[in-house]
Design brief:
single chain, mainly alpha, about 110 residues
């Protein structure tokens, strides 16, 4: 039983490390793109857009087929995580996420 608990504890620690690395990667993605070589840029692009990018000739638009969920999460989530680590909390932090994004409804003056 103790061996199983130790194994699970190590997995949890590894998960915490992985989540921290993932959030750091997400927050530094543009800086990372600037400094990595072509091979790493391809790997980074595949990480962000796992099903690739398509070009629509009719509209002359380039769009991803899918975006990794890590990169479409609301930006306030990272700030919220940092604030929780520092012991700060804001009960209203997620209220702005409930508002529709621009483009869903007509803007009013």
């Amino acid at each position: 039983m103790e061996a199983e608990l130790e194994r699970v504890s190590k997995e949890i620690l590894n998960l915490d490390d992985f989540m921290e690395y993932s959030l750091t990667l997400r927050s530094n993605i543009f800086r990372m793109w600037d400094i990595v070589d072509l091979g790493d840029k391809r790997r980074l692009q595949n990480l962000i857009f796992p099903k690739g990018i398509v070009y629509d000739k009719e509209t002359a638009r380039i769009e991803p087929r899918e975006v990794n969920r890590l990169f479409i999460a609301m930006p306030c989530e990272l700030e919220q995580t940092i604030e929780k680590e520092n012991g700060q909390t804001d009960k209203n932090i997620n209220l702005s996420a409930l508002a529709p994004r621009l483009g869903l409804e007509p803007r009013t003056p």
